[in-house]
Amino acid sequence: MKRILPLLFVLLLAAVPAIGAAAQDAPADELREVAEDTYAFVSGGYVSFFVVTDAGVIATDPSSQNGPERAEAYAAAIASVTEQPVRYLIYSHEHADHAIGGNVFAETATFVSHRNAVQPIADLEEPRAPVPTISFSDEMAIELGGTTVELYYAGRNHSDSSIVLLHPAQGVAFAVDFIPVDSLPFQNLPDAYPEEWIESLRWVDRNLDFDRLVIGHPPVVGSKENVAEVRAYLEDLSTAVRAAQAAGAADNSPEMVDTVRAELTADYGEWTNFDEWLPLNIEGLLAARAAEDAAAVATPTA
After folding, report:
1. pLDDT tens across 185-202, in order?
2. Count of CB atoms within 10 A of residue 3's CB?
3. What angle do CA 174, 177, 182 make, to 5 degrees?
4. Is the pTM of this model over 0.85?
5. Which terminus of the chain faces fewer neighbouring Cβ atoms within 10 Å, N or C?
C-alpha cells in the first residue's frame, strides 16, 4: 500500500478555511491513526472513521451536510494514506448531518446501514446521500482484504437506527452521538429514546469487547468506560427528574432545573455543555416520556 505520513496531510490542510458558520472556530482538519490501518478524520466538528485494507477501504459517515468541501477533504485524507478505493461506506445512523456527502465515494462504494435508516435517508431526496443498498437488523460482518469489521444494532437510543462498528482485531469501536465522551447528550435529545438508550448502553457494555472508542464529534478517542458513564448519567438524570416531580416542581420549571442541577453537579458538572444543555436534556427527557405515555394510551394492551 502506498502511504504518505498523515502529519503531512494535516499540515497541508492547516491553511484550508473552516467550512460553514458553525465550524469557523474549529481547529484545522486532522487525520489521526488510532490503530494500525485504522484512522479518524476530524473536520468541522465531526469525526469520520475508516479502515484501510489491501483490497479497499471501509469508511463511515461523510458528515458533509453544510457543503461538499468536508466530504472532498475526507476523500483526500483517505487518498493520503492509500491508493485503494473506498469499497464500503457505512452510515452510523440516519441523521442528515452525518449521512450527507457520500456521493464522493459512489463510483466504488457500496452503502450500508441499519434497516431503519434506509427509508429516512431515501426521504432526504439528497443526491449527495446515496441510499443504502445493504442493510441489516441485528448484526452483520463485512470482510475485505483479510480484515473484518462487525456492525451491531444495540436498540433505540439517540435514534432508532444507530449502530456500533467494531474493529475487533484492533479493539476499536466507532459509535456516533449516543456515547458522548465527558459531555452531555445533545441539547433536547431530538429523535431520541432516553429510557431505551439506557438499555442500549447496557447492551454495548455487556456484549462488545473494545478498549478505544471513536465518536462522531471531538474529542476523538474515548474508552469503553465512557459507555458506563453515559448510562449512569442518563439513569441519574431520570431519577433526579422524578424526584423533582415528587417534590412538587413543575416540569421544565426553574425549580426543577435547579433541583436536578444540584443533584448532578458533583458527578457531571465538569462535563462539556453541562450548564447549557442540562435544561434541554430535562426538556427532552420529559417530552420523550410524554410521547411514550401518549402512545401507550393510543394502543392499550389486550
Report:
1. 999 999 999 999 999 999
2. 11
3. 90
4. yes
5. C
Q: How many residues does the chain have?
A: 302
Phi-psi region at 49: left, alpha or beta (left = phi > 0; alpha = psi -120 to 50):
beta
CB within 8 Å of 35: residues ≥ 6 apart = 167, 170, 171, 172, 212
Rg (CA), the chain: 20
How many independent structural domains does the chain possess?
Answer: 1
For residue 218, cis peptide bond before it (omega within 30 degrees of 0): no
- State residue 140's pLDDT score: 98
251 Cβ contact partners less than 8 Å away, ≥ 6 residues apart: 245, 286
Inside any domain, residue 191: yes
Three-class DSSP labels, the chain: CCCCCHHHHHHHHCCCCCCCHHHCCCCCCEEEEEECCEEEEEECCEEEEEEEECCEEEEECCCCCCCCHHHHHHHHHHHCCCCCCEEEEECCCCCHHHHCCHHHHCCCCEEEEEHHHHHHHHHCCCCCCCCCCEEECCEEEEEECCEEEEEEECCCCCCCCCEEEEECCCCEEEECCCCCCCECCCCCCCCCCHHHHHHHHHHHHHHCCCCEEEECCCCCEEECHHHHHHHHHHHHHHHHHHHHHHCCCCCCCHHHHHHHHHHHHHHHCCCECHHHHHHHHHHHHHHHHHHHHHHHHHCCCC
At which residue does the C-alpha cell 463485512 appear? 142
Q: Quick check: 9 pLDDT over 50?
A: no
So what's the pLDDT on residue 253?
Answer: 98
CATH at 60: 3.60.15.10
pLDDT value of position 1: 44
299 occurs within a structural domain = no
C-beta of residue 56 within 8 angstroms of C-beta of residue 145 = yes
Residue in the block written with cell 420529559: 286
